[in-house]
Amino acid sequence: MTIYALSTGPGVSGVAIIRISGPGASEAIKLLTKKDLPIPRIATLRKINDINTSEFIDEGIIIWFPGPQSYTGEDMAEIHIHGGKAIVLTLQNELSKIENFRLAEPGEFTKIAFQNGKINLLKAEGIADLISAETEIQRLQAVKIMKGKSAEKFNILRDKLLKVLSFVEAKIDFPEEDLPDENIHQIKRDSTEVLNKIKKILDDQKIGEIIREGFKIAIVGPTNAGKSSLLNNLSNRDVAIVSEIAGTTRDVIEIHLNMDGYPVIISDTAGIRNSKNEIEKKGIKLSLDRAENADLKLVVVDVKSIDLSGFLNDLLKDNAILVVNKSDLIKGELPPEVKKLDHVLISLKENLNLDKLISKIKERLKTKFIVNEDILITRERHRQHLIQCSNNLKNFIEKNDKKDFDKGAEDLRLATRHLGMIVGKVDVEEILGSIFNDFCIGK
């Protein structure tokens, strides 16, 4: 089967690129251009015609990549045409006429590249992250993954476990033979070393995932405190409806921002209060859930009615900044219990001290995004495999101490398998769909 897809963005553009990969790629170029194949990897100007009638469609650049020296490892071609919708649709329609040709699924070109050994799973994920990167820090992280440093470190750990496994299986296969003391010490030393390194990798404060997905900030607090106004101010546009009526916001409103190069997701939530309205109650539950999962909470209160008991006290316990709004109405000093908290006194109406609040948010961002070379986990998939690997290794070391090699070997095989799953060294068909479905069509 040969696949094809538009690899550039949809809509009108100066140039559009249609990518073809598979055994029929060469035949498609010959049928469309009525000429022999161009010189490999040389951009060649050709007239593109209707396959059946030879009617002129467009004039564009053909680049021919014979396999295995191509992105997918198969015969592959790119057709660069003008980016009008009608031209793109006409060319795709011509390709659909060819036998055993079909439109590619999301991420299928990269999936084929992985299956043909051109890239590993981590590099495939790095490509997807690079395409979707919105900030410089996301781009840099994706590039690091694509360069293969993460894969190299995981492969080194896996190779060390495979060596340990070979000693253990030798003992199982030849039970009458005593393993040399040095080998027994080596088994414990190497497996413990790998376990400690995995623990260190897991102890990363989830920075890799936060960089990839965005630093989550939840704006929470009681009704009519100014949460929606704060969201609008931070985003420099009217995202949320602002009203004097309490409980206007019922659902979570989310925006993505780039703050000094850091990816940030800010959520405006429903005001928290005792309510009998079922819809508002659901909104309040969403608010509390979003606050629980946030990397930072902006707890907004009205200076005229500050009550830090109950749910507000819980929200302020961890990863929170107290935002005291309506400072233009303040009379006297703030209560002592407010002063001792990390707080900012602002007025959204008068646009006062918002720069101080933004500075505080940026300080939290910079503290969180202290990136070092040891950040290897960028997705929950990696974390879960490492946790499973760690658990299996603990079980193995326990059984190894009791000289229970037969049972310990299975734990060691599972630990090795989970490390292999991260880079795609073992059968990973069950996870391919979830990875490559995140890609755009044409990649």
Q: What is the H-and-E element order?
A: EEHEEEHEHHHHHHEHEEHEHEHEHHHH
Output the number of helix runs.
Answer: 16
What is the molecular shape? Answer: flat
Given the helix and strand composition, which structural class is it?
alpha/beta
Which strands sit side by side, in order, in the main sheet?
A: 3-4-5-2-1-6
The overall pLDDT average reads 84
How many separate domains make up the residues? Answer: 3
The largest pleated sheet is described as: 6 strands, mixed
Tell me the CATH superfamily of the largest domain.
Answer: P-loop containing nucleotide triphosphate hydrolases
Number of strands: 12
Approximate strand percentage: 15-25%
Give me the CATH architecture of the largest domain, please.
Answer: 3-Layer(aba) Sandwich
Q: Name the poorly predicted regions.
A: 241-250
Radius of gyration: 29 Å
Q: Portion of residues in helices? A: 40-55%
* CATH class division of the largest domain: Alpha Beta
Task: Label this structure with key terms.
single chain; 443 residues; alpha/beta; Gyrase A, domain 2; Four Helix Bundle (Hemerythrin (Met), subunit A); Rossmann fold; 3 domains; six-stranded mixed β-sheet; 46% helix
